[in-house]
Amino acid sequence: MSVEVERKFVCDADTQKTLEGIGAVCVGQRQFHDQYFDTPDFQLTLSDMWLRKRKGCWELKCPTTTVCGSEETSGEQPKGEALCTRYKEITNLPEIQQRVKEVVKHNCEEGESACQPAEKVIEEEGKSGGSSQEDESWLSRLNLTCFAEFTTLRCSFTLEEEGVQIDLDQADFGYHVGEIEVLVPEGEEVQSALERIERTARKLGLTGDQRVQGKMNIYLQRNRPEHYAKLLSAHVL
Ligand code: V4E
Fold first, then answer.
1. What pLDDT band is residue 5 in, cutting at 50, 70 and 90?
2. How far is the CA of 9 from the centre of ligand 1 (A)?
3. Residue 132 or 136, more confident
4. What is the DSSP string of the chain?
5. pLDDT of res. 182
6. CA atoms within 13 A of residue 106's CA, in its CB half-sphere
7. How many Å apart are CA 121 and CA 47, to the nearest integer?
8. Which residues line ligand 1 (CB under 6 A)?
């Protein structure tokens, strides 16, 4: 499990040139399709938990506070650092299922008789034997359905002197966004990552102090207004 520290930024036709100008090296372009899942009443995303399937792999992003119980940002943060998001990235499926159940279970306890106990879901998952149809039965047991899916064309750069990756994303619904990111291995300090991201942002001439919207914000705004409004009022987005 690692922590993804990330700052999004507005990119345009000149961004690639700017990146090359500061010494960033293009390490490739790839395309991927993401599917995001939640319960019909948005229990996961209202907890700021983002369950997705990308290239056949499951990933769960959770706020660092939820998982660790302590956040390293008490008190005032420098402006640039406040623009960075920090999420735990979990890629181990049994652990993902456990985390999801800890949130979704709540609803079961409040009277949804169709829900099974968490232990039952794990137990049955263990018996599934690996066919893709059976592998995904845990989704319906936990009342999870896909609420967003889109394809991204991503051009990735590295800036070696700072140890950061910079991605330029083009989503198929017509939104472009850049991200400066560092994956911090579990147990390591995120502070250095924040500083390296901030230095990279300055090298790129990023001056704005407004948070830049991610692909999901725009997708929900356009396609799932009710879901989007709920996340806004819960201050998740
Ligand atoms: C964490 C999160 C979401 C999940 C998608 O995260 P994001 O990093 O935007 O997607 P992507 O495709 O770049 O993933 P990567 O390839 O880097 O793993 S959707 C919404 N959130 C929360 C969130 C937030 N509150 N604010 C900002 C600026 N971004 C994301």
1. very high
2. 12
3. 136
4. -EEEEEEEE---TTHHHHHHHTT-EEEEEEEEEEEEEE-TT-HHHHTT-EEEEETTEEEEEEEHHHHHS--S--S---HHHHTEEEEEEE--HHHHHHHHHHHHHHHHHTT-TTPPPHHHHHHHHHTSTT-HHHHTHHHHHTT-EEEEEEEEEEEEEEETTTTEEEEEEEETTTEEEEEEEEEEETTS-SHHHHHHHHHHHHHTT----SPPP-HHHHHHHHH-HHHHHHHHHTT--
5. 97
6. 11
7. 21
8. 6, 8, 50, 61, 85, 87, 179, 211, 214-216, 237
Q: Report the percentage of the chain scoring pLDDT > 70.
A: 81
Total count of residues recorded for the chain:
237
Pairing of strands 57-63, 50-54: antiparallel
Residue nearest to atom 3 of ligand 1 (CA): 50
Residue at 169: amino acid letter:
D
What is the reported pTM?
Answer: 0.86
3-state secondary structure 215-229: HHHHHHHHHCHHHHH
If you measure from the C-alpha of residue 99 to the centroid of ligand 1, how many angstroms do you get, rounded to a whole number? 18
Please give the backbone phi and psi of residue 98, each rounded to the nearest 5 degrees, phi first. -65, -50
pLDDT for 98-125, tens place per residue?
999 999 975 555 444 444 554 554 444 4
**Model pLDDT for residues 138-152, shown as the tens digit of each residue:** 999 999 999 999 999
